[in-house]
Amino acid sequence: MIEGILIGIKTALSFQNLLMVMVGCFAGTIIGMLPGLGPMTAIALMIPITYGFDPATGLILMAGVYYGAVFGGSTSSILINAPGVPGTVATSFDGYPMAQQGKAGKALAIAAYSSFAGGTIAAIFLLIAAPSLSKVSLSFRSPDYFGLMILGLTAVAAFSSKGNFLKAMMMCVLGLMLASVGQDTLSDIPRFTFNTMNLSDGISFVLVVMATFAMSEALTIIIKGNDPTKAAKQISLTDLGSIKVSKEETKQMAKTIPRSSILGFIIGVLPGAGATIASFLAYGMERNFVSSEEKEKFGKGSVQGLSAPETANNAACSGAFVPLLTLGIPGSGTTAVMLGALLGFGIQPGPRLYETNPEIFWSVIMSMYIGMVVLLILNLPLIPYIARILAVPRTFLIPMILFFSVTGIYLMSFNNFDIFLMIGIAVVATILRLYDFPMPPLILAFVLGGLMEENLRRSLLISDGSWSFLWDRPLTFCIMIVIILLVGWQIYNSLVKKKL
Amino acid sequence: MKINSVKIISLLFFVLSAFYLYTAYQIQVFSFDEDSPFNAKTFPIYLGYAGMFFAGLKIVLPDRKPIEVDPTHLEFKKTILLVITMIIYGATILKVGFFLSTSLFLVFSYYFLGERRWKYIIIFSFPFVAIFMYLLHGLLAVYLRDPLLKYIGIMG
Asked: Which chain A residues contact residue B3 at CB under 8 A?
């Protein structure tokens, strides 16, 4: 393991990779800060650029963008009470009241220190957990993988879209349908190509991500008539106050950070749960831990109320990498985008990644940590300047996002058809967004589609067409039980609870 | 059962799944593969049924939180104009070239979204695209097709 860590440090600290972490964190902060545009959009916009680099560098850039976007989301939550991502909603509960009291700088510093500490603790957990889990997951067979993928999709559908389970499941099926377009991987038989050569290679992953996130988010902002930069005009973005944190406040944070980190990491590892649930749970847990006097301050600018969700959401972001790196199964929309990018590089994440591409495995883990250091020492002091991006009018912002989306696809295919297809998917996705159909399950399903079919194929062939493979192995059986419980709980929620 | 927009979308999804299922059954597999436990159409067939199942449930079951979007509060005109601009951009980018089509796309998009400060419109279109092209084509050596600039002799 020490050797691997050293390989990771060496790769991550090369001049090019260090530069990429900085560029990624900076770009991610800017995009993540814009309300409505989250880490998935930030990563999606970066994918065409990453294909110009080697896999390790490309992934390091994306990891930097990811952390930068989460940090940027916290910034807009604190400054203008407009969370860039759902994972930072809980941050605004106490961050925004602090900003209103003229302590925006302090709130940003507490958020940054908490994120850093949460990320650091989670990175250590990741260092320990990932290699061990990799070894365990070598014993997994196709039925287990198939079960895990179903579990991942069901969990994302259940947790990422509260009260919209059926809508999320429909989006999962739509994602799998889109993934099935093109030649069958084994027999090369064309499927759903409607005799057009443009679809014979299938639909590009970047196209679907750009269309369902970057482009449709931009169109949603326009059709709803939202102005993400409106709130920023009401506050001073240049005078944010001191970023110094007192000894008393540091003591308070020191109590909060360890417990929120552990909670955040565990929640992050679970498929589908992610940063949003982690931050809300950490906020709730912290409220129960503090004294009744401190409890009164929650929602009015409490240091612990701000520190807990920030620590937990960053720890959850690191935790989400565990299933991706060890099993090759993403547990969230963002890690699904990263899996898609990895597959684009020709790398199959999973238990063997640890052995076959140790430089990628370890450099991604190490670059996460370096990314957090960069965020702390570079982005925090620059916040008064970066925050001015919030004042860029949407009349310029939206066309730029659309331009980067179209250019991204143009550079990859030099094909009009792909651009038209992307616009078509973006329009449909915009309509679906208006009616609360969640997009992360669609992306996760699209990325997992090929792997899922492959594992189902192997399982059915081994069991000679019998579905008994779902309960023959104890592990597959346990996974299926969890899926049944999850679906049952969702049905109970939607039917029985309604009548009560 | 109350009909609302979500139910209509679910109904459309049901029809889409039915069409997908029909198309899945039409997939031609190799004759030796027809009786195999798994062939090229097995997974799509399951997907078609799954789509119809979930969409069917959504149509039949009552909505816990019905969502109604008021069309009078939506900015259809701007959105449609922007989509048309993107389609024209997509249609011209290969023939006209990256520089001119992108710059014009940005100019029209800024204008349609309500920007009237021409100084900024010009700065963030033609010079911006030129710098972007220089970074991509000149520094990162990413190929950008531009017949117009090639004809003029600016691009190699």
From this structure: none
CA A385 vs. chain centroid, Å, equals 26
The DSSP string of B95-114 is TT-HHHHHHHHHHHHHHHTT
Amino acid at A182: G
What is the domain count for chain B? 2
Which is nearest to A165 in space by CA: A152, A173, A175, A154? Answer: A154
Contacts of A500 (CB under 8 A, 6+ apart): none
CB contact under 8 A, B87 and A398: no
* Domain spans in chain A, listed from the N-terminal domain onward: 2-229+244-499
pLDDT in tens, A232-277: 555 565 666 777 888 888 998 998 999 999 998 888 887 666 677 7
CA distance A113 to A373: 10
d(CA A150, CA A173): 11
What's the full length of chain A, in residues?
500
Q: Which domain holds residue B50?
A: 5-68
Are B86 and A402 an interchain contact pair (Cβ–Cβ within 8 Å)? yes
The dihedral over CA atoms of A439, A441, A445, A447, expressed in degrees to the nearest 10, equals 60
Nearest residue on chain A to B83, judged by CA atoms? A423
The Cα–Cα gap between A483 and A274 comes to: 18
